[in-house]
Amino acid sequence: xxxxxxxxxxxxxxxxxxxxxxxxxxxxxxxxxxxxxxxxxxxxxxxxxxxxxxxxxxxxxxxxxxxxxxxxxxxxxxxxxxxxxxxxxxxxxxxxxxxxxxxxxxxxxxxxxx
Length: 114
Known about the structure:
By secondary structure, the chain is mainly β. It has one helix at 26-29, and strands at 5-7, 10-12, 18-23, 34-39, 46-51, 57-59, 67-72, 77-82, 91-96, 108-112. It contains one helix and ten strands; from the N terminus they run βββαβββββββ. Strand 7 and strand 8 form a beta hairpin.
C-alpha cells in the first residue's frame, strides 16, 4: 500500500508558479529514486521528473528548464518546483517509487488557467 501523500496543488494563472510536496516514511522517500508523474484529463499518466538518491535529476522535455525536483531526506519529503506554468501542465500530479508497483496515492490537482 502506497504511503506517499502529495500536496501543494491549486489553481494558478499561466506563467505562475507552484511547489508540490510529497511526504512519506523515510524508509521509502530517502531510500528510493522518487518520481513525479502527472495525468491530464483524457490522457495517459506520464512521468515528469525523477530524482536519484544522490540528488541527480532528470526531466521530460516539456518541463525541462521550468520544473525542478529536489529532496530533503531529513524531512522525508520530495518537492517539485514548477515555474512558468502553462495550461498544458494542468493535471493531477503524483509522486511514486518503483517499489509501489501499480499502487498510487491520491495525487494533487494542478490547474493552470486564466
